[in-house]
Amino acid sequence: MGKRKLVSAKTMRKLDGLLFMSPWLLGFAVFLGFPLLFSLYMSFHNMKMLPTRMDYEFVGLKHYNEILFRSSALYDGLFPFFREEIIMIPVILVFSLLIAMLLNQNLPGRFLFRAIFFLPVIFSSGYVLTELVNQGEGGLGFLERFELGKYLNIMLGDSSWSAPVQTVLNRFVLVLWYSGVQILIFLAGRQTISKSAYESARIDGASPWEVFWKITLPALSPFILLNLIYTVVDMFTYPFNPIISMIGLNQGEYGFNSALAWTYFLLIIGFLGLIVLLYSRFNKNNALRRK
User: Fold this and answer.
1) CA dihedral defined by 268, 274, 280, 283, rounded to 10 degrees?
2) Which domains occur in the chain, in start order?
3) Among 15, 102, 167, 226, which is least packed by CB within 10 angstroms?
4) How far apart are CA 242 and CA 244, in angstroms?
5) What pLDDT does residue 14 have?
6) Coil, strand or helix: which one is 178?
7) Distances (CA, A) of 153 to 141, 158, 161, 164
8) What Cα–Cα distance (Å) separates residue 189 from each residue in 96, 178, 213?
9) What DSSP string describes 223-247?
10) β-bridge partners, 57
11) Which domain of life does the protein's organism represent (predicted)?
């Protein structure tokens, strides 16, 4: 009898959890799940809008074949964008970590500074950010003021990295706009580290630099991975993404656009998987070195 009550109690707890999750599950199924599946269905069809209905013509992998093997449009926009993001993502992570370390100090007005760094997350939108950059307010102007572009061209030469580096520097304000969430996550992670660990390190005579590399950074490892995943997803969906612009460029070609969106989605998933794999191996090697 007691066992039956125990099973019943477990079932009730599961039902309670499912009940609390049901609004989100319902919203996901209606507003996100169905459109996702329908776009996947459209990617295998040619669609025509008739006066009274939609006409679907099954074409199989035709759109994917055209995107991947018969056209260079995807690659022409994707490779330069990848180079920009490979530069931008580490810059955002390092900047966020430094600001989080500063805001963790016992400084006067630190709560105000935390709010200031998070404000762009609240007020920013794709249209606002696009207008900001289009009006010439997205950069700091120091490249032109100090003629740093010439030095970069000399250092990088005709390398394919010269243009992405200058683009990132010209849009350096975007680092401020896209660092708010990462700063809060790093700040929360820093506050999970026990003060006794730092006190022990000071007693042993460790320098602040050694404390950072031996205590702070290893303890923040899960938060670095979390911020890395968040930043990759955030950057791959921001307004200046040429692939997203390309998806909306072919008006009326719903099947082709859906195939392009799913191709881009799979590329992002593959990129994230590669990042997680490399990060896990890096952490594993570091753990073996410590032993």
Assistant:
1) -100
2) 72-247 (1.10.3720.10)
3) 15
4) 6
5) 78
6) coil
7) 17, 7, 10, 12
8) 12, 18, 15
9) HHHHHHHHHHHHHTTSTT-HHHHHH
10) 46
11) Bacteria
